[in-house]
Fold:
Amino acid sequence: MTVPDALADRRVPTIASPLDRAGRRRVTWEVWIVLAVSVGQSALYSVLSLVRRLLAPVPLGSQQTQVNPSRDAQALWDIVYQLLSIFFALSLVALVLYLLWEPGMSAFRRIGLDFSRFGGDLGRGILLAAVIGVPGLALYAAGRALGVTVTVVASPLDTAWWTVPLLVLSALRAGLTEEVVFIGYLFDRLRRLGWGTWTIILSTAALRGAYHAYQGFGAIVGNFAMGVVFGWCYQRWGRVMPLVIAHTLLDVVAFVGYPLAAALWPGVFAPLPTPTPTPTPSSAG
Structure:
């Protein structure tokens, strides 16, 4: 790698030009609309779900939620609905990439969501997954022990031939949705509005924490910390790809490995014997 390439690798993509008053108003409305149809909507439902859980007669630690529930009792229709859910979630990713696209500058290149440096991105993604994953498991176990985190059923225990491919696609969907919107899109738009670096990092990390609030306080803390780390890495590297890789790897391990974890550590990971009265919120992401 040459010196200019090394410097570019550490530089966050710059904005095209300062915004005038009308431009700031347009970008502000655009951000609110994007949030309303994507991660912001999900974050609001998630926070409301946590409030409802706290008001329920059942203690928070005795409740559970499903991340990848079956959508139909018949296998064929379950597969169809799961694939459609993934497709429409990724359409929101396509929307923000379209909004980021400018003449002469591909949105993929602009936020570093391409394969031009895949070797380095893969190495960084694996390292990030290890750095985030191990403390994340410890935090989840601590939250379960303290009764401030609900039991998260990450995937069905009765797996079929189509389960693993769908779980991998769901993990990829989560990685793309959260990192492209939280990091690639919001960092660009909030910088255009004049926000400082750490204000953006902390704000997007807080939104990420709220997005996972339905899982309890442990998930809020863990995802806020993940958002700070990912935001700092993006500020330093200027590339979303390693973050997408890390997030996808984390979710693949969590989703696909869940039945094994539930069997080995039933007190921490196994589903509760009876359903809880509070449902999982609907989510755009």
Notes: The longest strand covers residues 64-66. The CA atoms of residues 142 and 218 lie 8 Å apart. DSSP finds twelve helices and two strands in the chain. Residues 1-10 have pLDDT under 50 and may be disordered.
